[in-house]
Structure prediction request, 455 residues.
Amino acid sequence: MPLKEEAQARPAGAKAPAPKFEKLSAVKGMNDILPPESARWEWLEATVRELMARYAYRNIRTPILEHTALFVRGIGEVTDIVEKEMYAFEDRSDKHGQFEHLAMRPENTAGVVRAVAEHNLLYDGPKRLWYTGPMFRREKPQRGRYRQFHQIGAEALGFAGPEVDAELILLASALWKAIGLDDVRLELNSLGQPAERALHRAQLIAHLERHADRLDEDAKRRLHSNPLRILDTKNPAMKEVVEAAPRLIDFLGAESLAHFDGLKAILNANAIGYTVNPRLVRGLDYYNLTVFEFVTDRLGAQGTVCAGGRYDDLIVQIGGKPAPAVGWALGVERVLDLVKEQGAAVPVPAPDAYAVVPDAAAMPVALRTLQQLREAGVRVQMHGATADGLGSFKSQFKKADASGAAHALVFGADELARGEVTVKALRDGGGAQIARPLADVAAWAATLQSPAPQH
Ligand code: ATP
Ligand code: MG
Prediction:
């Protein structure tokens, strides 16, 4: 909206001042991803896409808005996400006065499982799926913690054995290798099955009650609704109580232990290092058996870059037919922060050529030629007029140089009269130039192409 209009009277005939607008900014905790940084995102996405194909995971895209009930049921009512962090609202009512409770997805496992159940995707057997996209949580923004952040996730549905838990961990490990991360370590735990957790729960509550004076408000509230989550606390004052608590892993029966051992045997055979962390419970309610996190010490407090586990009971809670499932999600911002920490440079996608067009009359021929070059796979940047016009020949060359292009294409009047364009080398000393025929662009297009930039 325009700011208050200026009160003073204007002399007759004077030009009205341009209206002033208040500068708008992005929502707190929600970031713009700008070039050149966005090149790093594209590089990660391309690497992930290739890797997912190698492991035969197929892409799924689900809506950002879902019914709030999906997350309440899927993630659990007594979780930070559902209690405090979700962007949930009542949609405008329809003509019957009905409105829907909707939420911006805070994570995507529930959405994927909803889609799988809704479309009966498992009718012809198990499925391996992956996704990427923005997630939303109203958290306190800080390094590695944003209100809009991005996840890449992989989910395998319909598989019951530990080998697919292992496959997912191997897939994540392959990703760290592919993007040059060598100090993410794997923490592993097993949460067993609901009956085993019930046994443990009674003893855990008794232990926590004995130390009631040391519990914070959150813990007191969760003591009877979700005591396992207390083990996931980030409050240092409760560290001692939590460390002395009975360990769920000591309550697991033979089948749960066999699943855990099966997973560990495959990781061992693949030389994947891990530590078993009996206090690892994960923030979401839906996990059973295997849970894991990939963590680093290099990102301060937000050290978990990827987290996942098995969630065999989730699909039933969402109204689908029973099917075991396991998956993980990584935080794109944290992974890229770590890539940067390791000193990797952003690949700058320089064009192969920059078109210098001294006179607007040459534009039709120039753009036709550039179009043919691009069809042949050449990356070409066009010089366009700004509010100050096209600029001098010299200033255009400066821009060509600054673009990082290897070649300048000069569409001058003389060369056009001869039916040619001049190709001038800008790198490696530069200067060398050669005339190319406009009539047969395909014949010389490949001479402009340089190999794709390496990360
Ligand atoms: P944390 O313990 O750091 O809050 P979480 O257990 O809430 O993480 P998950 O729900 O398991 O996280 O999400 C998987 C991954 O997504 C995390 O390991 C992290 O890398 C990333 N992530 C989660 N929340 C955020 C956020 N607010 N901003 C940036 N990345 C996030
Ligand atoms: Mg969290």
Residues 1-7 have pLDDT under 50 and may be disordered.
